[in-house]
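Figure 2 data, in text form.
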Amino acid sequence: MRWLCAFLLLLTLALPGQADGNGRAALARVDLAQSSLQAEGRDRGKPRPLDLRLSLTQPVPYRVYFLDAPPRLVVDFRQVDFSRADTKSLPGSDLVPALRWGKFRPGWSRLVMELSGPYALNVALQSPAEGGAGGALLHLRLDPVDQDDFVTRGNALSALWDLPQPVTGNTAPAAKPGDRLRIALDPGHGGHDPGAQVGAISEAAVMLGFAQELAELLTREGFEVVTTRQDDSFIPLERRMTIARAAGADLFISLHADALPAGEAAGMSIYTWDPDADDRATRDLAMRHDRADLVGGLDLVGTDDGVADVLMDLARLETHPRSEAFAKFAVSELNRAGVAMHRRPVRGAAFSVLKSPDIPSVLIELGFLTDPGDRANLFDPDWRAETARALARAIGGWSQDDAARAALSRR
């Protein structure tokens, strides 16, 4: 079943535009006078680091990827009006073999920049315009890499029509005896998105610390661990799932410690994917978790493509029960360890990081920074250590049960 969805995570990006004086949605425009393309170092006939800065009249969702033959940077926007902007007027446009932009389908604009060789994207940041001006500044930093390190979307047809990439065969071979389970740990928030804050305490910093402690314990226990961020960096939600998938993760665990009005929530909760979850607290948390991607240029709140939605639902027939099974193992071990749980310890929510149909995924709210008891726990080394050990035992028990069930299903 997993092969159905390895590359079928099609996400609709939507951001309401500003309105003009007549109440109509106004498209973002590029200000060439405040935009530039610059190359670092002297021209010695080899690819040089590139720095692209586009000044926009308003923030827009965007996505960035590379294509090959020839090497190209592609930036899709929803939506920028390039009709009054000549690419030759962009300062530095002559630094690359070719540059073009414009509307390529309803609701979408595209920038294509041909490159002199393979590159990697090291910075992709949309921030408020510099100098107090209105609008936004999109900053892309590209550094030359070896051909083997050139990561592309796969083929031009997929990029042109926004189709899933082709899949050949089973992308998730059955585990062999002795294989180590791969766990993806996702410390929530980071960078310009600190998450919940209580005084000088930020959710991003607390979760990064706990993720590092849990990763160290899991590694000692014989698991392989990949973390979606290792420092105070902003990682878009879609990228977090991509990191887990690229690592071949067997389980994805997102870690949070959010904030809700006093008295509304306390204790640990474990969430699995449920697009129909409708209690107010869960909706508030979903908005808090997902809204930060708008700052980075991505909005994952929209509905999925209809065809992809059906295929992902089919894939979840396998992965969703596995996610729920891990949640139950975790609750059992946490209860045994005496860790205080929410009165409804396992819940459903439409968190974007749980949407991946090919990896069992859970989001763990370790507690709420707005609750004094939870806050004290999060800063108690003994509590953190006991919680980490309980989660490690849950992962071990779940993996054995999961392997046994997989063996039975193959008979």
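Caption note: Residues 306-336 form the longest helix (31 residues).
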